[in-house]
Specification:
The chain has seven helices and 17 strands. It is of the alpha/beta class. It binds flavin-adenine dinucleotide and FE2/S2 (inorganic) cluster.
Length: 321
């Protein structure tokens, strides 16, 4: 069986076991969340030995070159010496926390040095004790603070802390940015369709604002889904954005409620394709709950959108204990 060496200790991996599981099983603390190769919180560096290609999927070229890999999906075929991912975090401070709805809080972070990113990418937020979770960026590069929208997960460690204990001035750090869900210029006339539920709105707002300020001329349709009207946060901001840009169209959608609330009523995926049955030539962005993201990806593709034109970020959470 492969041996995983870490900070002077050696641990034998069980058959088919991921490096993260070998280390956790032996009491080594490694930050982690999704356990599915998506959030990048479990990053480690291989000092010796080879790691499989799929454990480097989604990492930037600079990280790959330095030997970084995602330990939750790395099942080594030979011995490996690994190190913690040090020096990749940038210090930040919580600048502001404000509730956008009963279950969503906006977190503004002030960086010690400016972050180079694209609106819609995500960062990994590290609490001082090492707890790490990924959040998408609703802000635009050049703004004073990074803006995150965090949903309260029942018994969630990071979201519970942000809702109940964290205060402005609290030091944290961030790693990233990562992800490829962002606007790219070059086809300003192309119609855009953005859809997501809950805090899936965070990257979508960033992407819309980025497209509009870059001079996008084609129609931009943003669908935000929630269970009930009280889940449709930032609706006034989005209505104001639509009033100021004739190309931008905001469509709130609720599963339960009536149209008197100003929202469309129905399932988000069905509402989108009923209103846009032909999507050939469009570009799509879908973010948020993983099962709805998968459904939307499929429906947009079946309506004619090229798969290469669909960018997606599934907010995969840690498996419940
Ligand atoms: C690329 C990416 C982008 C993301 N962007 C965002 C974003 O913009 N906004 C956002 O809100 N989230 C986002 N997420 C999800 C986010 O990273 C966290 O997973 C989420 O905030 C939950 O973290 P937590 O520490 O609060 O919950 P955790 O403590 O990690 O709990 C995880 C899950 O287990 C459940 N759970 C925990 N303890 C128990 C228990 N004792 N019994 C039963 N169930 C339990 C929780 O309810 C939750 O569903 C993103 C994820 C990814 C991968
Ligand atoms: S990528 Fe490994 S825990 Fe999320």
């Amino acid at each position: 069986m492969p041996v995983v060496r870490y900070c002077g200790a050696a641990f034998e991996a069980a058959p088919g076991e991921a490096v993260l599981d070998t280390l956790l099983r032996n009491g080594v603390i490694v930050p982690n969340s999704c356990r599915a190769g998506v959030c990048q919180s479990c990053l480690l560096r291989a000092a010796e030995g080879a790691v499989p290609d799929d454990s480097r999927r989604g990492l930037g070229a600079a990280l790959v070159e330095q030997g970084y890999f995602l330990s939750c999906v790395c099942r080594p075929s030979g011995d490996l010496a690994v190190e913690p991912a040090g020096g990749l975090e940038t210090p930040a401070t919580i600048a502001e926390l404000d509730r956008l709805s009963p279950t969503v809080i906006r977190v503004r972070l002030r960086m010690a040095e400016p972050l180079v990113y694209r609106a819609g990418q995500y960062i990994t937020l590290h609490r001082a004790d090492g707890l790490a979770r990924s959040y998408s960026l609703a802000s635009l590069p050049g703004e004073d603070t990074l803006e995150l929208h965090v949903r309260r997960a029942p018994q969630g460690k990071m979201s519970g802390w942000l809702f109940d204990q964290a205060r402005a001035g609290e030091p944290v750090s961030i790693r990233g940015p990562a992800g490829a869900c962002f606007y790219t210029a070059g086809r300003p006339e192309q119609p855009l369709l953005l859809a997501g539920t809950g805090t899936g709105l965070a990257p979508l707002i960033g992407i819309c604002r980025d497209a509009l300020r870059t001079g996008h001329t084609g129609p931009v349709h943003l669908y935000h889904g929630a269970l009930r009207p009280d889940g449709l946060y930032l609706a006034d901001v989005l209505r104001a954005l639509a009033a100021g840009h004739s190309a931008f169209h905001y469509h709130p959608v609720v599963l339960e409620g009536d149209e008197a609330s100003g929202a469309l009523v129905g399932a988000l995926d069905k509402t989108v394709v009923n209103r846009h049955p032909k999507l050939a030539g469009w570009r799509g962005f879908v973010c948020g709950d993983p099962s709805i993201v998968r459904l939307l990806q499929k429906k947009l593709f079946l309506a004619g959108m090229a798969s290469s034109d669909i960018a997606a970020d599934a907010f995969v959470e840690a498996p419940a204990p």
